[in-house]
Amino acid sequence: MQMFRNLRAGVRFSRLVAHLFIAFLTVVPLVSCLGGDDETVVYGDTAISSFSLSYLKVIKHVTSSKGEDSTIVVTPTASLYRFDIDHYNKTIVNKDSLPFGTDSLRFLLNIAATNGGYVYYRTGKSDTVTYFQSTDTISFLENPRKFIVISTDAQNAKEYTVKMNIHKEDSMKMTWSAPYDVPMLAGISRSTSVVFGNSLIVKGLKDDKPVLFKTALSDGRNWTQLTPDQELAVASNLAVMDDVVYAVGSDNKTVYMSYDAEKWTPTAIQTDHPVSFYGGNGLYIYGYDTDQKKIVLIDPFFATVEYDKVLNLNNIPVHTDLTPSFCPVMGRGSDAGYLDASVIVGTTDGKCSMVLYKAESIEEQKWMELTNEDEALLPDGVKMQAVAYGDYLVTLANNCFFTSLDRGRTWYDRYYMHTPAGLQTGAEFVFAADPKGTLWIITENGQVYRGKLNRMAWGK
Prior knowledge:
Elements: H1 2-27, E1 48-55, E2 58-63, E3 69-74, E4 83-86, E5 91-94, E6 108-113, E7 118-122, E8 129-131, E9 145-150, E10 157-163, E11 174-176, E12 180-181, E13 189-196, E14 199-206, E15 209-216, E16 224-226, E17 239-241, E18 244-248, E19 254-258, E20 264-270, E21 275-280, E22 285-289, E23 294-299, E24 304-307, E25 310-311, E26 325-330, E27 339-347, E28 353-359, E29 367-369, E30 385-389, E31 392-397, E32 400-404, E33 430-433, E34 439-442, E35 447-453, H2 454-457
Parallel strand pairs: 5-10, 25-29
Antiparallel strand pairs: 1-6, 2-3, 4-5, 7-8, 7-9, 9-10, 11-35, 12-35, 13-14, 14-15, 15-16, 17-18, 18-19, 19-20, 21-22, 22-23, 23-24, 26-27, 27-28, 28-29, 30-31, 31-32, 33-34, 34-35
């Protein structure tokens, strides 16, 4: 039975070659091989050697500052999307999907074949083939499509399946899940959070007592109250370094470490003055000396404490009821995965918003204040929580997002980065981002929101 199947398959392919040969005769003039100066060499084998896009059209939906929806047409650099050719399986595919909204009716292609082979493409599902030219507008409404290459001696043909991957979701669309009601998280003041392993830990005050709560990053609905065996400082963030979480004790001088946020062991680090943590970036822990009003650099591996260098700073974000945020910022491009900078977002004693920046990729750099001269300033006198989120820094304040793409120098309200509809955080809230691309918002009344910008979730 298998023999007959193979025989039928061979007959079908022979018919294909015959059709191609006829098309070849009608489209491409054969050159005589009788010798002379115009003699042309023909080859018995060929293959598609390269495949790329030369034109790509994308239709995008945009919203104006007045809230009006419209569409625009953009033409990104098509050649940036690479296509991989598998000659064994005769497939051609782009690993990086084309943008959402790509017009699948109009592509211009660049296709080359070895040994001067001629390329054709099928029309529909029939045996009809069309000779390919780079000026042809090719539709991929029917996806994948078949392309055939024929040798110059018209004796051999190879058929390739070309699949055009196109995103089915807008990469810049923000989606939020319905909130979970978690009563144990309601009424927490001076709240802050940190991602530790596969968990999100929330720290704060409830009924005037320090509390710690934990949930799995994959959950958010079910929370556990932790019972630390040491009393921790209220006005201090937690700092995570590798698989260890660090905290300041209730004396505001002793640094503790823990592997589970419940059993805390005092380290050899003891500060001379009361210190509150901003956070850790994998290299150092940064804190604030509340007596000297200076930024402290703590190296937990060598148990050293020193005052860090600053550049013309008259004010520093402080640990009041408006808890500051610490954002380790990773590099881009070839530096992706490496620490690039540290950013602190918070408020001063005078309740003014402030952003401090320090380049970590260059030695002996100083903390500097980033002055925003744009109209879109971070608000003053309210609680702000900031996170590093891909290429963005995102700050939540007044129930809105402010985003920065330049490490905190300028901040904008971008239409695609939006908070959940009807969000009311209250005066106290938690804002966090995890490694899987999820943003977390926990409101004052214990509602837990989880959301993602689509492109941040892809590949996570």
